[in-house]
Amino acid sequence: MSVRAGETGAAAYRRRAASLFPGGVNSPVRAYGAVGGEPPIIVEGKGAVVRDVDGREYLDYVGAFGPLILGHAHPAVVAAVRREAEAGGPFGATTPAEIELGAAIRAAMPSLERLRFVSSGTEAAMSALRVARAATRRDLVVKFEGGYHGHADGLLARAGSGLATLSLPASAGVAAVVAAQTLLARYNDLASVAAAFERHPGKIAAVIVEPVAANMGVVAPEAGFLDGLRELTARHGALLVFDEVITGFRVARGGAQARYHVAPDLTVLGKIVGGGMPVGAYGGRAELLDLVAPAGPVYQAGTLSGHPVAMAAGLATLGELGAELYARLEHLGAALETGLLEAAATAGRRVSIGRVGSLLTVFFRAAAPRDFDEVQEADADAFARFHRAMRDAGILLPPSPQEAWFLSAAHGMEDVARTVEAARTAFRA
Ligand SMILES: *Cc1c(COP(=O)(O)O)cnc(C)c1O
Q1: Ligand 1 centroid vs 408 CA: distance in angstroms?
Q2: Residue 52 annotated among the catalytic residues of the structure
Q3: I need a surface site. Which of 2, 315, 405, 428 has the fewest CB within 10 A?
Q4: Measured between alpha carbons, how far is 304 from 117 in angstroms, rounded to an integer?
Q5: Is residue 158 in a domain?
Q6: What is the pTM of this model?
Q7: What backbone torsions phi and psi does residue 231 show, to the nearest 5 degrees?
Q8: Is residue 46 flagged as an active site residue?
């Protein structure tokens, strides 16, 4: 590597990254546009701590944006990956690893009578909606403002003349006719979903929702919201799709569907089920999944789907996730929430916290937001200052006010205490 005079290791890497990758990154959420400063170049992680190329250590709340519920380099995951890599796959054939992981997922989430592995959450959401359209012979899909379901064309949609109307592309390069197959509704607002069904009778194939919204910051479903979606979709002959890419094995072993006792028709998974490897999955009632090739007419395929190394990482991860761990994560999350609120109050800063279990967001807004409009009222500049001050104190938060912080099994009460101490100063920034 060529290092210029005066450049640290990180600066040299960032310069090379900037010339290789758009914006210097391979996924936009890794950039630091929203918070300022330069993104770290990370070389190593162990437990709850990551180390950058300059040797600086951080307590990590990014958690790779969700998968690492056990923290970095958990010994069971590392051993499973090593074992499976040495076995010489993939083989372009079924292996025991995918059967074991599939069975473990079904045991935890019985609504997935059958499932299919893919290589990302994006693929899983896109494929689930393909199945929903095939099953209902309808084209329109309802999603919620602020919900994220990967970057498939039809899911990059924004409101046109209003909610419940046909959407416009939210990204350049998305065909208007494709975006127009998506309708937008407001999270925690059943009336906005009912309005979509009234406006487009007999045309809506599915409602897709993050049962706990975690991509606009953490916004919990209000009592009755998920039940209401279940009832509305059933009444109108549409399918209910839970995107549990973040919440699956996170808010409970059985995901949000277990935590809130609402069974969707189809479920989208990713992140934790891959144990840090590229994995997605979609599943649901057998008669729906049996529409997928080669059992049925919906085409969906993947050269590396069910990759044995990734399956092994997922299986090793799921093997560690018991009731005790979820109770501990809940306890840690509650302690972090209480500590941060107290630190903010002492600093005279009005913040609120959205939290479900080990998922948490600090909103620089007096009341916790219920939907995306309210999320956007939060003070983004205050968050940016807070983020920089926390980073200076050795605590790495996701570089956006609209992302979840992820606690892991590797975090402890002393980490929470350290974070709250750092926040006392950072809230004054
Ligand atoms: C991360 C995420 C996705 C996309 O998953 P990728 O593996 O990044 O493609 C989809 N839905 C939700 C809820 C996510 O958080």
Answers
A1: 18
A2: no
A3: 2
A4: 9
A5: yes
A6: 0.97
A7: -70, -45
A8: no
Last residue of a domain, one of 291, 318, 345: 318
Burial of 299: CB neighbours in 10 Å, binned 0-12, 13-18, 19+: exposed
Q: Is the residue at 4 inside a domain?
A: no
Verify whether ligand 1 is closer than 6 Å to residue 209 (CB atom): no
Containing domain of residue 199, as a range?
Answer: 75-318
Ligand 1 touching residue 146 (CB < 6 A): no
**CA count, 13 A, side-chain hemisphere, 151:** 7
| Cβ 118 under 6 angstroms from ligand 1 | no
CB 134 within 8 A of CB 293: no
Quick one: 313 and 326 in the same domain? no
User: What digits encode the pLDDT tens for the residues 12-49?
Assistant: 999 999 999 999 999 999 999 999 999 999 999 999 99
Single out the catalytic residue among 52, 61, 260, 271: 271
Residues of the chain above pLDDT 70, percent = 98
| pLDDT tens digits along 59-87 | 999 999 999 999 999 999 999 999 999 99
Is the same domain home to 367 and 306? no
How close is the Cα of 150 to the center of ligand 1, in Å?
Answer: 5
Which of residues 318, 335, 359 is at a domain's end?
318
pLDDT band at 7 (very low <50, low <70, confident <90, very high): low
* Whether 303 and 340 share a structural domain: no
